[in-house]
Known about the structure:
By secondary structure, the protein is of the alpha+beta class. The protein has 2 domains: 17-166 and 230-316, BirA Bifunctional Protein, domain 2; 325-410, Rossmann fold (3-Layer(aba) Sandwich). It has helices at 17-33, 47-53, 59-64, 82-91, 136-152, 168-182, 191-199, 210-218, 221-225, 232-247, 292-295, 310-316, 334-346, 360-370, 379-384, 402-410, and strands at residues 37-38, 44-46, 66-70, 73-77, 101-110, 122-131, 158-164, 253-254, 266-274, 282-288, 303-309, 325-331, 351-353, 371-377, 387-391, 397-400.
Amino acid sequence: xxxxxxxxxxxxxxxxxxxxxxxxxxxxxxxxxxxxxxxxxxxxxxxxxxxxxxxxxxxxxxxxxxxxxxxxxxxxxxxxxxxxxxxxxxxxxxxxxxxxxxxxxxxxxxxxxxxxxxxxxxxxxxxxxxxxxxxxxxxxxxxxxxxxxxxxxxxxxxxxxxxxxxxxxxxxxxxxxxxxxxxxxxxxxxxxxxxxxxxxxxxxxxxxxxxxxxxxxxxxxxxxxxxxxxxxxxxxxxxxxxxxxxxxxxxxxxxxxxxxxxxxxxxxxxxxxxxxxxxxxxxxxxxxxxxxxxxxxxxxxxxxxxxxxxxxxxxxxxxxxxxxxxxxxxxxxxxxxxxxxxxxxxxxxxxxxxxxxxxxxxxxxxxxxxxxxxxxxxxxxxxxxxxxxxxxxxxxxxxxxxxxxxxxxxx
Length: 411
Ligand code: ATP
Ligand code: MG
C-alpha cells in the first residue's frame, strides 16, 4: 500500500507556491512598514506552556493538541503561536525594552480537528503581536494592519466584527447572568457546554454544536442575557477603539456575542469574516490579552494581536501562474550548453539546459513549457559566436549577441 500524507495535512506543490509567496511577501511588506519585526519560535514547546497560556478550558488544550513524551518531558506541537511568542518575549527579556515591542510571524500550526473544507490538522497562520501598550490605539493599529494586509492581497469584501469582553471584574456579573439564563436548558446542551458551564460559561456562546445552537434560539438566549456591562475603564477603552477605527476609516460591525475560543482575551476581541468561505468563514481572529504575560510568569504587560489562517486566505485570492525560468538552452553540444547556462546564471538569470541532449524538437517542446526564451545553440551559432533566440510567447526568432540576450530578458 502506498503511503499518503497524514489525514488533515496537505502538500503545497510547486504549482501553488507563488500564491504562498504572494501572501508571505505582502505580510512582510505591510507589517515591516509599521515596524513589526519577524520572530520565529520552535514548532514544539513544553506542553505546560499551552496548558497555562491557551487555557485548560479550551477545545485546543482539551482535545486538539498533538502531545508526545521524550525523555520524560511532555512536548506539544504548537496549536497557535501567541503562547510561544510570549514565552520568547520573556525568555529574551523584551519586556525591558521601551514599549511597544512588535512582532509578526508565520508558520505551521497543529490541531487535532475533524478535517473539512477550510479546516486542516496542519495549517498555517500569519499573525502579529504587540506588547506594552494599554491604549486602544494599539488595538486599532492591529485591526487596521489586518485590514491593510487583506487589502494588499486584493481582498476588500470582508466584515470586521468587534466586541469587548471587558476585564475579569465586568465579566463576573455577565457570567452569572449567562449561567442563570442557560440553567433551564443546560441538560440539553453538549458535553463540552456542560463542562464550560462551571469553568468558563462565556465560551458556551462560541459553541458550534447544532443542537446547542438550536436551544439557544429556542430559549432566545442572546436576547435574555443581552450584552456584557462594561466597567467605566473598559467602556472607555472600547469607545476609544471605535473612535480610532472611525478615524482610520475601518468599517466594523459590533457583535456583542463575539467571544472567541481562547481563554486569554480581555477587553477587545475581533474577527474578520468573508462571505466567500462557506461555513469556516473566519479568516482572522484576535484581541487584547492583558493577563497572558503575567500568567506565563512575566510582569504585568498589556498586549494585543491576531492570527489569520493562510489556507483560508489562499482560497480567497486568485491563483497565480507557475513562474517560468528565463532561458532554456537548446543544443546538441553539452559542454557549450552548460557553459552558457552558468554564464547566464552568473548574470542573475534563471537558466537550464537539456541534461539528456535530446533532439532539438523535443528540447524546444520542453523549453516552451518551462521558459520565456529558448536559446538555440547549434554548430553555426557556436562557430560564429552568436545566439538564435526564440521568444516562447510570440514565437519570434532573432539572432543576437550575449549582451543583447541579457538585455532582452531584463525587459
Ligand atoms: P475556528 O472558529 O474557525 O475554529 P478559531 O477560533 O479556532 O477558528 P483561531 O485559533 O483564532 O481560530 O485562529 C485564527 C485563524 O486561524 C482562524 O480564523 C482560521 O482562519 C485559522 N484556523 C484555525 N484553525 C484552523 C484549522 N484547523 N485549519 C485551517 N485554518 C484554521
Ligand atoms: Mg477552532
